[in-house]
Amino acid sequence: MAKLLFTDGKVVTAEGSYRADVLVEDEKVVAVGTNLDANGAETVDAAGKLVMPGFIDAHTHMDMPFGGTVTADDWATGTEAAVAGGTTMLIDFSLQEEGGTLAGAVDAWTEKARGKAVIDYGFRVAITDLRDDIKAELPDLSARGVASVKIFMAYKGTPLYTEDDDLFETLQLSKEAGVLVMVHAENGDVIAKLQQQALERGDVAPKFHALTRPEEVEAEATNRAIRLAEVAGAPILVVHVSCAPALEAIHLAHERGQTVYAETCPQYFAFEYEDLAREGFEGAKYVCSPPLRDPSNRPALWNGLRVGDLQIFGSDHCSFNYEGQKEMGKDDFTLIPNGLPGAEERAMALWTLGVREGKLSENQFVAVLSTNQARIYGAYPRKGTLAPGADADVVLWDPELSTTATAENRHGNVDYTPYEGMSFTGGPASVYVRGSLVYRDGEVVGERGSGKFIERRFTATSGLEVRV
Ligand SMILES: [Zn+2]
Fold first, then answer.
1. CA 133 to centroid of ligand 1, rounded, Å
2. How far apart are the CA of 49 and the centre of ligand 1, in A?
3. Which of 145, 255, 279, 454 has minimal Cβ neighbours within 10 Å of its Cβ?
């Protein structure tokens, strides 16, 4: 393995920014500083670039069945899209099949990733059926390096939907089992009722997807999940927080001193409810859950990221083609597969809309994309930092790189991009995974199958202290 010295760049971590060189050997960072003993190292000129730890996207759905179809990106195209956005590790959802076990879910996703992933990865299991044998199996999951599970409070009428008693018991068991419980927090019962009423009225267009999932149903479920975690005495993570009322429940929990982690996503900053009302059936391209909101929510979400109520920024990359997949819901919005591609655009959107607009610092950018993800998901300090001993996952970020998204220049396998025509300033010039160059100047150069499964460990103290 080559020995590399990144020279003349500005190192940007979650803690601070400084001029330093970074020496890499045998897949690891060995030193960060000046006048390093770099005998025999190949030099990488990082002048004008920001040298950052590789980004982690702990919220993707590659090759995942949903609503009678399967996501458009597999582990090859999905990880290629991710690395083109500076991401060096994914944590993806493996679904417990009906009648299946947690180990079965991990095994199935291990096969999906094999020979395909160009970046490192981990799994989390979506528990869909909490049988007695599954309760007993939870600690084995953690022993396999799978340190988180997901519970869906939404999608009533599908196998994903979970009642409160099972959510609560999973939270109770999670402490001993060494896993962090994450929740999709929307009130599934109320959404099902609102959807039924909308269809009965003949309201079938994509915009009714958003109108039948109002902010309050997310806020109510967020608060309920947090309170159930409080009763169970367990930490919890709320993913894809989309609106101010849900964030308020998280903020109040932090004021009480409760350990609640929370994620938000680029689509809630780049798009809005009005996008679902685009002409024809175009709005289907913007159907995800929780839905896109009124932009009046954004100042609160930015503030949440700034003060630490929201610690992580994940893509929720869940790609479906317009043709043949989104179109399944042409006459009934409830049949539109839920999800947007965004793994490639995640960091560029955050830099363009957040850092350049003065809403976040470059160090907060690294924290929410990398360091906090590694800590909360139990991969720190192997991932999420450029300290000696960490994996040499390195992004050379060009703060002035100018790109415009179009379906043709995307690295994923989707027939549209919701970001069509949107321009970004700031992006990855090159990306290294464990010291190997995987992406440079718009092109993925890493080998499919070179990504590695990374074991993670979660303990209540391995996470991150929550501040308010
Ligand atoms: Zn998701």
1. 26
2. 32
3. 279
The C-alpha angle with vertex 1 and arms to 40 and 29, in degrees rounded to 5, equals 80
Ligand 1 centroid – CA 118 distance (Å): 21
CA of 70 to the centre of ligand 1 (A): 14
Q: How far is the centre of ligand 1, averaged over its atoms, from the C-alpha of 8 (Å)? A: 38
The alpha carbon of 185 and the centre of ligand 1 are apart by a number of angstroms equal to 11
pTM above 0.90, yes or no: yes
**pLDDT tens-place values along the chain, 468 residues long:** 579 999 999 999 999 999 999 999 999 999 999 999 889 999 999 999 999 999 999 999 999 998 889 999 999 999 999 999 999 999 999 999 999 999 999 999 999 999 999 999 999 999 999 999 999 999 999 999 999 999 999 999 888 899 999 999 999 999 889 899 999 999 999 999 999 999 999 999 999 999 999 999 999 999 999 999 999 999 999 999 999 999 999 999 999 999 999 999 999 999 999 999 999 999 999 999 999 999 999 999 999 999 999 999 999 999 999 999 999 999 999 999 999 999 999 999 999 999 999 999 999 999 999 999 999 999 999 999 999 999 999 999 999 999 999 999 999 999 999 999 999 999 999 999 999 999 999 999 999 999 999 999 887 655 666 654
Span from the CA of 149 to the centroid of ligand 1 (angstroms): 12
AA identity, residue 36: L
Q: How far is the CA of 381 from the centre of ligand 1 (A)?
A: 25
Residue written as token pair 């994914």: 90
- The residue type at 75: W
Q: Which ranges in 114-182 belong to alpha helices (H)?
A: 132-143, 164-177
What spacing in Å lies between the alpha carbon of 45 and ligand 1's midpoint? Answer: 37
For residue 92, the CA-to-ligand 1 centroid distance in Å is: 9
- The count of other CB atoms within 10 Å of the CB of residue 440 is 15
Residue 415 Cα to ligand 1 midpoint, Å, equals 20
Determine the residue type at 215.
Answer: E
